[in-house]
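Title: Comparing notes on inverse folding

I've been comparing how different people in this forum approach sequence design from structure. To keep things fair, I'm posting one structure and asking everyone to reply with a full sequence. Here's the target:
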């Protein structure tokens, strides 16, 4: 039976509706992990370090899609809740067209800025050349990368989470197959992995354009914009989605800072180990992000429709689901630290031990991170972009930057691994304070 945004959501219905989004985000992370696996095992430690060194810069360019997807999705869901479907389609189309233009501009900026930025971050010699070469192969696909991120959110808003999942699976399978072919069979090394990534982003961005460009049974469709674009709505979209944009940019900036600190305290091995941690931890974090993406349109719809009791129920159910998932993921992280590290670094005993130790610290952060991720998304769905952005800003930038700069002074490399745990604990506390303080305003 089809689940609609207007339904009453029990635990079972909420899980069924958000499950495709969770799988979609997890699968996106998994094919990123496969990318790293092939580069590390078939191209070597230095190319693997280069990929992880430049990846935060590429992610900053692509994460504009999350801003359009989450901010626009919340506004569209609220508009649908108010019963204005034609207006919702106009907003949807405006957001998609704007994101395409934005993606092209970001790709051009990337071509110009990649070498000086990589150099500024401390890359030199072969690490610098490998980083620039990988990035310039991926950069032409940045407009499609933006669309892929955006549609991961908008498919859910259109009550079509399953087609969104199918698109992500298609892009992921293409990346995995081409990674195996280009890197393991043709021995194209890091360049082959970059080409596989670029093609998968093309698939993930183009298929949704065809899907929404033709008539279908989804709530949303791409339409021709008549008259003057609604610039106020576009500004609201960007403002409301700024928290997710800030979150992703901050994560990438912090990753750059981690790389700088690890280069200082552990050298190239530290960057490679951090790359493994990021690949694997993203899979775990994707569960929280996927649930937040999947539940946001439901929250936005019921807020727009004035269903305060349903809104309160969604918040309570979400906290219980996130808490249960956090405990399971912490346990899994502790148990799987060694076998997962072996997949990427089994060929180098010193690198593997460094990675295992780091992952055991990192997995402690799973106990708290889901609450801040969901909390930020919850306020975005309510149209409270400022509070959402503040939670994201503190979690992903302020707390982590302070910790990664201070902790290593006392605990060296272990202090770097501990930084993320401290930041997530503080972010969860701040999120709780905001949710408590704004309860009367939103009636949940």
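Reply #1:
Here's my take.
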């Amino acid at each position: 039976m089809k689940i609609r945004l207007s339904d009453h959501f029990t635990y079972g219905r909420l899980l069924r509706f958000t499950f495709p989004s969770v799988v979609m985000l997890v699968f996106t992370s998994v094919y990123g992990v496969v990318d790293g696996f092939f580069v590390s095992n078939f191209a070597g430690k230095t190319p693997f370090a280069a990929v992880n060194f430049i990846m935060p810069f590429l992610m900053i360019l692509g994460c504009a899609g999350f801003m359009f997807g989450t901010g626009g999705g919340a506004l569209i869901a609220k508009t649908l809740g108010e019963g204005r479907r034609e207006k919702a389609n106009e907003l949807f189309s405006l957001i998609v067209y704007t994101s395409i233009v934005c993606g092209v501009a970001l790709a051009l900026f990337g071509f110009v800025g990649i070498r000086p930025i990589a150099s500024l971050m401390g890359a030199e010699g072969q690490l610098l050349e490998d980083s620039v070469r990988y990035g310039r192969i991926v950069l032409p696909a940045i407009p499609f990368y933006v669309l892929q991120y955006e549609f991961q959110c908008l498919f859910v808003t259109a009550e079509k989470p399953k087609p969104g999942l199918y698109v992500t699976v298609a892009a992921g399978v293409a990346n995995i197959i081409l990674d195996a072919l280009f890197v393991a069979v043709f021995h194209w090394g890091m360049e082959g992995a970059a080409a596989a990534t670029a093609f998968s982003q093309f698939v993930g961005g183009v298929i949704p354009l065809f899907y929404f460009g033709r008539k279908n049974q989804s709530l949303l469709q791409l339409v021709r914009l008549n008259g003057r674009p609604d610039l106020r709505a576009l500004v609201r979209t960007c403002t409301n989605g700024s928290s997710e944009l800030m979150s992703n940019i901050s994560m990438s900036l912090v990753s750059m800072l981690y790389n700088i600190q690890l280069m200082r305290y552990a050298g190239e091995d530290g960057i490679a180990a951090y790359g493994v941690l990021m690949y694997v931890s993203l899979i775990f974090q994707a569960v929280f992000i996927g649930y937040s993406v999947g539940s946001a349109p439901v929250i936005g719809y019921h807020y727009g429709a004035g269903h305060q009791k349903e809104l309160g129920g969604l918040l309570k159910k979400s906290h219980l689901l996130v808490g249960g998932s956090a405990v399971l993921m912490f346990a899994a992280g502790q148990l799987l630290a060694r076998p997962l590290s072996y997949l990427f670094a089994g060929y180098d005993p010193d690198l593997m031990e460094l990675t295992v130790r780091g992952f055991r610290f990192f997995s402690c952060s799973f106990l708290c991170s889901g609450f801040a991720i969901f909390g930020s998304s919850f306020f975005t769905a309510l149209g409270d972009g400022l509070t959402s952005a503040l939670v994201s800003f503190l979690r992903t930038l302020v707390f982590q930057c302070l910790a990664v700069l201070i902790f290593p002074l006392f605990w060296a490399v272990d202090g770097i691994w501990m930084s993320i745990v401290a930041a997530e604990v503080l972010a969860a506390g701040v999120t709780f304070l905001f949710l408590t303080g704004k309860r009367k305003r939103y009636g949940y």
